[in-house]
Write a structure and sequence with these properties.
single chain, 5-stranded antiparallel sheet
Length: about 120
Amino acid sequence: MFFIFGISNKEKELDFRQVTECPSCGVYGSLEAFMVYNYFSLFFIPIFRWSKRYFIKSTCCGSIYTIEKDLGRAIERGDKPHISPSDLTPLASNYNRGRSCNNCGYPLDPGFEYCPKCGIRQN
């Protein structure tokens, strides 16, 4: 008899969206919540999870923030708490204060007339 088991990690997007002004770039956008955890599986069926961590991602500039576990658990349960800037601890800021593409947000050099990533003409 043999057993197939494993330990892995997973990212799960939570059902949460809040429209607000981004603390990093100051543009109106959405905050989305997701959870990262480790799990043990037996015959490809997850048995239990541990080490849950909760994060918020800003859709306008892609900045990522950590939040307290209590607030993350409330979002996971389906509650819709209001997240204020004081609840967010910056983890990674992708905000570039220079010129960026109007379509995809790719950072542009000042002389670019077209975006090198998506090809859209810039104003």
